[in-house]
Amino acid sequence: MRISGLSLIVLLLLYSGIPLLELIPAGNVIVRSQSEKKAAGETKNLAAPSDSGVTEEEVKKLEEKAERHSFQTDIARLMDIIINALYTHKEVFLRELISNGSDALDKIRYLSVKEPGLLKDLKELKILIEYNKEEKTVTITDTGLGMTKDDLIKNLGTVAKSGTAAFMEALSKGDTNNLIGQFGVGFYSTYLVAKKVMVTSKHNDDEQYIWISQAGSSFSVIKDPKGNTLGRGTRVTIYLKDDAIEYVEQDTLKNLAKKYSEFINYPIYIRMQKQVTKEVEEEKPKEEKKPEEDKKVSLSLALIM
Fold first, then answer.
1. What does the alpha-carbon distance between residue 20 and residue 35 come to, in Å, rounded to a whole number?
2. What does the alpha-carbon distance between residue 153 and residue 150 come to, in Å, rounded to a whole number?
3. What are the phi and psi torsion angles at 97 (to 5°)?
4. Residue 93 confidence (pLDDT)
5. Where exactly are the structural domains of the chain?
6. d(Cα 206, Cα 228) in Å, to the nearest integer?
7. In Å, how far are 3, 29, 97, 265 from 261, measured between CA atoms?
8. DSSP assignments along the chain, one per residue
9. Mean pLDDT for all residues in the chain
10. Are 18 and 271 in contact (CB under 8 A)?
11. pLDDT single digits (tens) 187-220
12. Which superfamily does 50-248 belong to?
């Protein structure tokens, strides 16, 4: 079953005394309390706590303890081209990360046909997009196959020379806007908007590991000190450049996710902030009387869960 851009599922979590989950599928609004969802066995399918609130200072401390590796020469050259010359539309980074997440979900779905136990408790195959305005991050998480430590080093630190050569040849012929997805180098489009990227991944055959790079000549890999927070899958956290802050605007992310979800076979959720106004009675000092119309005040509550 294909999910078109118009039927993209957007996940809204809002807090106003009692946590509510507002789910909007294809324009229809359903509001249920967390207790109702728990009774229905649905809350276990929510995404794991996000790393999107991890500060750059915390990431820097991780890097200091991590193993350092050098990028393959072709990768360094490739990133330089992408950052400086390849795209006029930086938004394609989201298209590529959604596509990569979909590929990872395809892999675990295919393997689970023969071995259903591979899915464990994460039976829902999905992609989750989050943002953090304070830390200026965008995070894309999938519940796909995940990567081992060796996979992170191999898949994100090197690329087949034949693929790189073909990419460079195609680049010289123009039509750059759709090139990246054709040669397996889509991940590096993150550096169109990122000053730093952190990839957290958990594969069934390994512990959870973190990959970090600033698009220089090297990257770092470290075992996640938090342990297994994903269960399975991959989370890409992008620390945005100053000229890419527009991508922490929820309407921008929602519209782009719809645009690039047309050929994706899995639900895509966006964790968003919604502002709610709640009227409460204002307590008055005993010695002071106020007009009847002043008994109500409006409080605006907004929290990303």
1. 9
2. 5
3. -70, -35
4. 92
5. 1-46+250-277+300-305, 50-248
6. 10
7. 7, 20, 11, 8
8. --B-GGG-EEEEEEEESEEEEEEEETT--EEEEHHHHHHTT-GGGSPPPPSTT--HHHHHHHHHHSEEEEPPHHHHHHHHHIIIII-S-TTHHHHHHHHHHHHHHHHHHHHHHH-GGGGTT-----EEEEEETTTTEEEEEE-S----HHHHHHHHH---HHHHHHHHHHHHTS-GGG-GGGTT-GGGGGGGTEEEEEEEEE-TTS--EEEEE-SSSEEEEEE-TT--SSSSEEEEEEEE-GGGGGGG-HHHHHHHHHHT-TTB-S-EEE-B---EEEEEEPP--TT----GGGGEEEEEE----
9. 75
10. no
11. 888 999 999 999 999 999 999 999 999 877 889 9
12. Histidine kinase-like ATPase, C-terminal domain (3.30.565.10)
pLDDT of residue 285: 61
Q: How far apart are CA 263 and CA 275, in angstroms?
A: 31
The predicted model scores a pTM of 0.74
Tokens of 178: 């759709």
pLDDT band at residue 25 using 50, 70 and 90 as cut-offs? very low
Q: What residue has token string 């303890």?
A: 65
d(CA 156, CA 3) in angstroms, rounded, equals 29
Q: What is the pLDDT of residue 157?
A: 83
Radius of gyration (Cα) for the chain, nearest Å?
22
Name the residue among 141, 156, 135 with its Cα closest to residue 240. Answer: 135
Instruction: Between 55 and 27, name the one with better pLDDT.
Output: 55
Helix axes 92-114, 250-259, angle to 10 degrees: 60
For residue 134, give the amino acid letter: E
